[in-house]
Amino acid sequence: MTDLNVAVVILNFNGRKHLETFLPSVVLHSSPHTIILAENASTDDSVDFLKKNYPKIRIVHNAVNHGFARGYNDALEQIKGEFDAYLLLNSDVEVTPNWLEPLIKTLENEKIVAVQPKILAYLNKDNFEHAGACGGHIDSNYFPFCRGRIFDNVEKDDLQYNHSQQITWTSGAAMLIRSEAFHQAGGFDADFFAHMEEIDLCLRLQRKGYQLVCNPESVVYHLGGGTLAYNSPNKIYLNFRNNLFMLVKNHQGLLLPKLFFRMTLDGIAAVKFLTEGNFSFTWKVFLAHMALYRNFGKMYRKRLALKANKYNFFKYNGSILWAYFIQKNKTYSSLNQRKFK
To answer: Domain 7-222, CATH 3.30.70.3270 — does that match?
Structure first.
C-alpha cells in the first residue's frame, strides 16, 4: 500500500496569492506524487501564474464556482479512476518534508478510509490550527471540536497528542482519502456549499464501517480563514445551517427531539451573540434556521436514503457545551476519554 498512487488536489478560487506563498512547499515535498490544481472558475490570474511558474502541474477546470463541496466533486469526477487516493489540500497550507509517507502508510489498514496530519497554525507554529487541529470529533448534539481545539480555545502543541488516534472526522484542509470510497459515498454534499461538508462525508463513510484517523507524524501549517474570516457572519451562517443539515441526515436516534433540543441551543447562542452586540451573528443564526425549514424535506429524503447503513459512528457521547462551560474542561485531554466510542 505504500506505493499508493496519490493525487494532491488543491481547489483554487482566486487564490493566486496563496499559490505563490504555499505551492513551493507542496512541490518540494510531494514527489513522486501528482499535484493537480482544481481550478474553480477563478477570475484572477491564478492559471497564468501556474502555467508560467509550474508548467508541469496539471490543471482541471470547473466551468462554474459552485463552492468547496461541489467544486471538489466536479474536479475529482474528471480524474476518477486514475488514482488510488486523493490528498485534498487547501491552497493556504504549507507542508513539511515527508508529510505524505505517514498518511499513506496509515491506509495500509484497510478499515481506515481517510487520515489527516497534525495541523498547526501557519502564523503561530507552536499552536494547533482551528480547522482540524489533531483530529476532529463531534458530541452527542453534533457540535464539532478537535483534539487540540474546543470552540475558540486553541491549545499549544506540546506534543501531547503526538500519537495516532481514531477520530470522527478528518479536516478538509488536509485529508488523504481513498478515491473509490469517496466516489461510492457520492462525495461531498453539494448542498452544504462550504463548511462541515467533510464532517458529513466522514459520518457517511463510518456508516459503511470505515474508520478515520489522525496521524501526527505528518505535520502541516494552515493559514486558515483564506476564503471566509473566522469572524465572518457568512461563516456563522454556513456553520449553523450545515450543522443542522448534518444532524437531520445522520442522526440515528429519534430525530425531532434531538433537532428541537439542538435548535434551542442555537437560540441560546443567538441571544448570547445579541448581548455581545453581534446582531449580524444573531441574524445569521435565524437565517440558518429558516434555511433548514426550506430544505428539511430534501435533507430528510437524504436521511431515508442513508437509513440502510446502521453502523454507529465514533463520537464523544456527552455534551461538549456542558464539559466546556460548566465543568470548565477547556482542553481535549481534560475531557472524560471513556465517553469517546
So the answer is: no
